[in-house]
Every structure is written in structure tokens, then in C-alpha cells.
Design a protein that fits this description.
Helices cover 50% and strands 11% of the residues. With 391 residues, it is of the alpha/beta class. It binds 5,6-dihydroxy-NADP and zinc ion.
Length: 391
């Protein structure tokens, strides 16, 4: 097992009705003026925003609001939020939504507390020295941003999507009520389950971990649990138990736990996908499913024992089967199709030209600083080859 640091400071309030504790939770964090940040309408339609406003008011906490965060959240709204927070003296950011809203809040938090252009952090020009405290009411199990150190923002000019990671932005608390996810469209539920799987897979396929009995056991149980419950939710979207399993898995999948001791994550599929959602504005989870199989076929020979272990322990391929690793890859692709996820770019609904593929791989090369990966180190020509295979 490789050496590691694990840091997961977020307080989790899990279960029905948690959103009614928001006032007390913000107060415990010493928040006096809140920015209530949310998306395009689901939280308003479900009545969730009203319950949160009531809880803040009952606790005597002042708030201002900024809605309209879109999936693949935009830099322009982040800038608007920074100005608003400065004008209104906001000292606490409350994100009500999924990864997009949480990431937008984190970016606003950096912008308010640091001088200069907030994009500098995402453009890898400098490091942030502070972030406003962020709290979360989670409405979709997917990105894991409620416990993660990262935020991902899209700059409209050029469709440039970039992530920035720092422990400064890890949320202070996350309210996780599985019932809130029952209003999700089936496609978003499936995208979320895919992203959750991927956050663990990107940590699992490593060449540097050595023996990782416990971490592997946690990772494999998480993967099996999410696949099982994704199928239950496909057929029974209001199943509370399945919603709860998936929601908790979403946080554990991306808070670092499933990578403890792995000697370095892979995260190539994420790098490849971020260029797709930056350029074509597709849902992140669907983009991941569309390229995963091509990535896996491209790299598996260089990480064979891990792919074989995955096939047997997670996908149920009998040990000793010929081409065990490939059977495991095929089985995960079949699972993606069973929950309505694409396994190619065409199925994702995008048809890039050869020139577009060159642009995607060039941008991916820039975003990753030239190389990415642990299962296999990818360079720009490898990225191009994988995009081509994914067509
Ligand atoms: O805007 P509303 O109306 O709320 O609709 C949203 C949105 O259209 C809808 N939705 C959310 N909760 C709902 C709901 N609809 C009905 N009922 C509910 N309860 O779902 C749609 C997707 O929301 P979004 O927040 O975009 O989803 P997700 O959590 O998948 O976040 C995706 C973003 O997170 C980034 C992705 O790249 C993408 O930009 N990621 C962030 C990470 C992080 N910060 O750690 C890691 C991830 O790998 C990922 O890159
Ligand atoms: Zn992801």
C-alpha cells in the first residue's frame, strides 16, 4: 500500500427532512449572510427552496439569492455571484443542487476571497489562498462535489472546461436527503450512477498501489452496490433504499476513500470527458460512459492484473476465463447500455469531424499539462487515438 493523506472534513446530515435543519447548520458555522445558490428550476418546483428559506428565516439568518446555474456551470455566472457577494457582504455560500451548483458556489467562494481573476485558478496560473465557507443541500447523487476538493467550471469563450482542486473548498456540511433525488429524470439518475462508478474506477485502475486489500474491498463493494441499485432505480425510481445507497456511494466515491493507498489516481476518462462536455455541453456521466470502453481497451494490457481483478470481483466474470479483462470491460459496457447510457460518441449524440478530434485531443493535452493516467500514461496522440476509437 502506498503512503497517503486522507482528509474528509465535511459534516454529513443524512436522511429524510435534513433540509429543515439548514438554519441551525449555517448558524453553527457562524454564517450571518448567506448566498442561496441554485440551478434552473427543480429545487423551486419541488418546494425545496421554500423549505430552506423558511429554515434560514426561523434561525434569523439573512440571505440573498442567485439561481440559474446550468449543467457544466459557466464562468459568467460565477463572476456575477462574486460581484453580488461582495456587494451584499455574503459570508456563507449555500449550494442547493448537484455538482454544477456546488462547483459554481466553490468558484464564487474563491473569487470573493482572493484578489484578481478567479479563472487564474482553473487555468493553473496560481493557487487560491482562501475560499468562503460552502454548505450543501444535495439534490442529485453524482459528482461527489459535496465532499470533494474540486470544482469544475466552463469558460464560455472557447468552450474551455477546467477543474481546480484545493482542500480550501471542501464543504463544511452536506445535507443528504435521498427523497430529494426522487424527482430526477431517469437519464440524470443513470448519468449520476455512471459518474459515481467512474470516480472509484479512476482510482482503482492504477499501477502504483501494490497490495490494497481494504481499499480494494471498499471500492469493489461500492461498485457492486451502485450497479445493483442503479438497476433498481431504473425500474422503481421512488425506491428510498436504493436512492439512499446510491447517494451515500456518491460521496464516498469521490471523497478520496476509494483511492487510499493507490499511489496515484488515473482520471484519464475524466480528462477526456471534460473536453467533450466543454465542447458539446453533454451530461458529464453520459460523456464518461461514451469513452470509458475505448479507454479501457486502449490501456488494459498495461494494467492487466487490475482489469482481471475488476472483471472477476466486480463484474462476476468466472476466474480463469479466457480474456478475463476484456470480458470485464464488455460486461461494464453492457451494464451502461442496460441503464440507457451511451457507449460511443455517436450514441452520445455527437459526431466530431477529424478536425474536431484533433481539437479535443489538443485541448485535453493542454488541460492535463501533457500527460495523464496511471493505468497507462497517456500523451496527446494516445488521447486522439481513444477519441477515434470512441466514434
Ligand atoms: O438545474 P436544475 O433544474 O436543478 O436541474 C438539474 C440539472 O439539469 C437536474 N437536477 C438536479 N437535481 C434534481 C434535478 N432535477 C430534478 N430533481 C432533482 N432533485 O439535474 C441536472 C444535472 O445537474 P448537475 O448539477 O449538472 O449534475 P451533476 O451533479 O452530475 O454535476 C455535473 C457537474 O459536476 C462536474 C461535472 O463536470 C459537471 O460540470 N463534476 C464535478 C466534480 C467535483 N466538483 O468534484 C467531479 C465530477 O467528476 C465532475 O467533473
Ligand atoms: Zn465525474
Amino acid at each position: 500500500m502506498a503512503d497517503f493523506t486522507f482528509y474528509a472534513p465535511t459534516q454529513i446530515v443524512f436522511g429524510r427532512g435534513g433540509e429543515n435543519q439548514i438554519g441551525a447548520l449555517v448558524k453553527a458555522q457562524n454564517g450571518k449572510k448567506v448566498l442561496l445558490h441554485y440551478g434552473g428550476g427543480s429545487a423551486r418546483r419541488s418546494g425545496l427552496l421554500d423549505r430552506i428559506r423558511a429554515s434560514l428565516t426561523a434561525a434569523g439568518i439573512a440571505y440573498t439569492e442567485l439561481g440559474g446555474v446550468v449543467p457544466n456551470p459557466r464562468l459568467s455566472l460565477v463572476r456575477e455571484g462574486i460581484d453580488l457577494c461582495r456587494r451584499e457582504g455574503v459570508d456563507f455560500l449555500l449550494a442547493v443542487g448537484g455538482g454544477s451548483v456546488i462547483d459554481s458556489a466553490k468558484a464564487i467562494g474563491y473569487g470573493v476571497t482572493n484578489e484578481g481573476d478567479v479563472w487564474d485558478f482553473y487555468d493553473r496560473r496560481r493557487q487560491a489562498s482562501a475560499c468562503l465557507p460552502v454548505g450543501v443541500v444535495l439534490t442529485i447523487a453524482a459528482a461527489g462535489s459535496e465532499m470533494s476538493s474540486s470544482s469544475v467550471i466552463t469558460k464560455e469563450e472557447g468552450g474551455i472546461k477546467r477543474g481546480y482542486s484545493s482542500n480550501l473548498c471542501r464543504p463544511r456540511f452536506a445535507v443528504m436527503n435521498p427523497e430529494l433525488t426522487m424527482t430526477l429524470p431517469p437519464y440524470q439518475t443513470a448519468c449520476g450512477c455512471t459518474d459515481i462508478l467512474m470516480h472509484t474506477l479512476e482510482r482503482y485502475f492504477t499501477n502504483n498501489g501494490g497490495n490494497m486489500e481494504l481499499t480494494d474491498g471498499i471500492a469493489e463493494a461500492l461498485l457492486r452496490t451502485v450497479m445493483k441499485n442503479a438497476v433498481i432505480l431504473r425500474d422503481d425510481p421512488e425506491n428510498y433504499g436504493a436512492r439512499a445507497e446510491v447517494m451515500w456511494a456518491g460521496s464516498l466515491s469521490h471523497n478520496g476513500l476509494t483511492g487510499c493507498g493507490n499511489g496515484g489516481d488515473d482520471f484519464s476518462v475524466h480528462a477526456l470527458e471534460h473536453e467533450l462536455s466543454g465542447m458539446y455541453d453533454v451530461a458529464h456521466g453520459a460523456g464518461l460512459a461514451a469513452v470509458w470502453g475505448s479507454w479501457a481497451r486502449y490501456v488494459y494490457r498495461e494494467c492487466l492484473p487490475r482489469f482481471e481483478q475488476f472483471a472477476v470481483r466486480v463484474m462476476g466474470v468466472p476466474a480463469g476465463t479466457a480474456d478475463t479483462a476484456l470480458r470485464g470491460i464488455e460486461a461494464l459496457e453492457a451494464f451502461f447500455r442496460s441503464i440507457g447510457m451511451p457507449t460511443s460518441l455517436r450514441e452520445l449524440g455527437v459526431e466530431p469531424s477529424e478536425q474536431d478530434l484533433l481539437t479535443l485531443s489538443r485541448k485535453c493535452g493542454v488541460a492535463t499539462g501533457g500527460t495523464k493516467g496511471s493505468a497507462k500514461k497517456l500523451h496527446e496522440p494516445d488521447m486522439l487515438a481513444i477519441y477515434r476509437m470512441a466514434l
